[in-house]
Design a protein that fits this description.
The protein has 396 residues and is an alpha+beta fold. Among the domains are: 63 residues, ATP-grasp fold, A domain (Dna Ligase, domain 1, 2-Layer Sandwich); 85 residues, ATP-grasp fold, B domain (D-amino Acid Aminotransferase, Chain A, domain 1). It is built from 9 helices and 16 strands. The protein has an 8-stranded antiparallel sheet, with helices on both faces. A 4-stranded parallel sheet has the order 3-2-1-4, covered by helices on one side. It comes from Phaeovulum veldkampii DSM 11550. This is ATP-grasp domain-containing protein. InterPro entries: ATP-grasp. GO terms for molecular function: ATP binding; metal ion binding.
Length: 396
């Protein structure tokens, strides 16, 4: 494939992370127990954010960084200049992290690393602060009261006596890492409440955030970067849901843009986190209610699934002339060489931007299923979503 013009992110790495940061995302199943993580996810998460880190050091599983993969991603337009350190095992990842810390680096991760493994000062964001900021029940400390849904925290044991007024969302309270809708339940009828109670109890969750189900027209994940003296809005991706609280992807459509008031709200919340000590990339789930209110639903003080799409979308639009993007992620049983062969034409034609390839041959936990992640482009929303729907079939 003839190399395509470079896709420059909306901002450089110097506006995403401090200059002493190092990307190290390899955690364990205890820290990610309320995310639905499997062993594969522990290594797969280290393969994200390619092309966004500038020259910063990174600790990555080698399944995402073969010469074949890196050459293809570079030809597709990603600028991968990072100081990449590859590992095969968790022990190797942590040993690399030790060396980076010894060089004065602070670790960046989306979810806390193995408890007690590294000193507090070794993290860009101290784990205790991360947990405080990402706890859904602590949102009132960051968000103006008028920008929150009606909410209260109760003990799981008090759920029956709480006199809920469905529809409501029940979310895990406390400070464990949550996300992906894994520890959220939508309650409309009595059977939903019984199932939610059983699910939360099985996960060891004993405190629940009860949140009114606001009638929302559109919800976005607003991506921001937070440094010592500046907070920057990187853009926003509309969230697509397969079911209530079950996000299935993201769309960026200029016809459904986040209102200016939503940007101002996100900047206000992120600046409150800055004053508390947060640094790096974060996201906020903000919805436009049918009554016109803008509501902050969830804090994501970490990089998000939509981050790469958000920061690369403007350059992809300029390069392709296509204005709408839709996220895609597919697993394939085919060898990586064949995966690349099957996506080469969409990349060359400008309507697919790959942001991550993972070769299952190098990662036993993948069970033979290689991963391809990125976003498709279209002239219209319908065209982009049609291409996204057909994408998995291309790699089957």
């Amino acid at each position: 494939m003839t190399p395509l013009p470079r896709l420059d992110p909306v901002v450089g790495a110097d506006l995403l992370f401090p200059s002493d940061a190092a990307f190290m995302a390899r955690s364990d199943l205890e820290q990610t127990r309320l995310l639905g993580y499997r062993p594969l996810n522990l290594d797969a998460v280290t393969t994200l954010m390619l092309g966004l880190l500038g020259g910063l050091p990174s600790v990555r599983h080698r399944s995402c960084a073969t010469d074949e993969i890196l050459r293809f991603l570079a030809d597709a337009g990603l600028r991968i200049d990072e100081d990449m350190h590859l590992f095969d095992t968790a022990d190797e990842a942590e040993a690399i992290a030790d060396r980076l810390i010894g060089q004065g680096r602070r670790l960046v991760w989306p979810y806390p690393l193995r408890a007690g493994r590294f000193a507090e000062a070794a993290h860009l964001v101290p784990p205790a602060l991360w947990r405080q900021l990402n706890s859904k029940e602590n949102l009132p400390a960051l968000v103006p009261v008028g920008a929150l849904a009606a909410r209260r925290v109760i003990a799981l044991a008090d759920l029956d006596a709480a006199q809920l007024q469905p529809p409501v969302y029940l979310k895990a309270a406390g400070d464990a890492a949550t996300g992906w809708g894994y520890a959220v339940r939508h309650v409309v009828r009595d059977a939903d409440l019984s199932a939610a109670r059983a699910d939360f109890a099985a996960q060891g969750i004993d405190r629940i955030l009860v949140e009114a189900a606001v009638d929302v027209i559109t919800c976005w994940c607003v991506n921001l970067s937070v440094l010592d003296t500046v907070v920057t809005c990187l853009g926003a991706a509309e969230q697509v849901f397969a079911a209530p609280a079950r996000q299935s992807g993201s769309v960026i459509d200029p016809e459904v843009a986040l209102p200016a008031a939503g940007i101002a709200l996100a900047l206000n919340v992120a600046d409150a986190a800055r004053r508390a000590g947060f640094r790096g990339v974060c996201g906020l789930d903000i919805g436009l209610a049918r009554d016109g209110r803008l509501i902050v639903f969830d804090p994501n003080f970490r990089f998000n699934a939509s981050t790469a799409q958000v920061v690369l979308h403007p350059a992809a639009v300029a390069r392709s002339g296509l204005g709408v993007s839709a996220s895609v992620s597919a697993a394939s049983p085919r060898p990586m060489a064949e995966v690349i062969a099957r996506i080469t034409a969409p990349v060359a034609e400008g309507w697919f931007v790959p942001t991550r390839l993972l070769d299952a041959a190098l990662l036993p936990a993948a069970n033979g299923a290689s991963l391809c992640t990125g976003f498709v482009m279209g002239r219209t929303r319908a065209e982009a979503q049609a291409r996204a729907s057909d994408f998995a079939a291309r790699l089957a």
